[in-house]
Amino acid sequence: xxxxxxxxxxxxxxxxxxxxxxxxxxxxxxxxxxxxxxxxxxxxxxxxxxxxxxxxxxxxxxxxxxxxxxxxxxxxxxxxxxxxxxxxxxxxxxxxxxxxxxxxxxxxxxxxxxxxxxxxxxxxxxxxxxxxxxxxxxxxxxxxxxxxxxxxxxxxxxxxxxxxxxxxxxxxxxxxxxxxxxxxxxxxxxxxxxxxxxxxxxxxxxxxxxxxxxxxxxxxxxxxxxxxxxxxxxxxxxxxxxxxxxxxxxxxxxxxxxxxxxxxxxxxxxxxxxxxxxxxxxxxxxxxxxx
Length: 291
Fold this sequence. Notes:
Blueprint: H1 7-19, H2 22-29, H3 33-47, E1 52-55, E2 58-61, H4 63-87, E3 95-100, H5 102-109, H6 113-119, E4 124-129, E5 143-146, E6 155-170, E7 178-180, H7 189-198, E8 204-205, H8 209-219, E9 222-226, H9 227-230, E10 236-238, E11 240-241, E12 244-245, E13 247-257, H10 264-276
Parallel strand pairs: 3-4, 3-5, 7-8, 7-9
Antiparallel strand pairs: 1-2, 5-13, 6-9, 6-10, 6-13, 11-12
Helix pairs in contact: 1-2, 1-3, 1-4, 2-3
């Protein structure tokens, strides 16, 4: 049987197997019925056949589901033992998938991967660059790091750090046109700030902040980037209004399923991230002034 990318999917399966319905499993897991359906479909795709079948008003296990149930129950029974080992200082063994913005990976997580390896040499880490806010809910990741506070029921969050995102322009550049993020990011505080300031949509759209900063230098247009990134581009200067830099303050949030709060994967990841981001009151880089 193939390895699943998310323990949350197996927890959902166990809940459906116990309750016999998606709705009851959703209530137990603190997620939506549609998320339960996505988790089960992902499991079906991994195995190559259905693990549940409808019988009347309930869902019952197929033969493949019975096999999976035995495996999942064994894994769940071992979870307490694994957690005890972790609490006793034993190294974490397993795989964790972390989903976050590309600049968080390149600027903060990748340089700290040596610390993870030193603490957990028998483990594996998948760092996936994406800003999809539903990565955890869909079972695509164990943990997500987000620059917006999640409000989804059943999703736990902990603040890791702060991040200022401001409007910048190259020295002598344009303050009438700008470079921003793709339309999918409309509604973010920094995008709204720029739309209000410039009174128009961006001339160019790029999907990473570093790409935006490089394009701003190449074109002379203004842009929105985190202050951490702007520090690496000396040609960029803050755009001000009434002698105040136009920027917004964002928090970086550690996001995971509430039902997994005692999971060794979550514990090991949180311990590592505390070494990467020592204080929730400081900037991501520890250098920028937080306003």
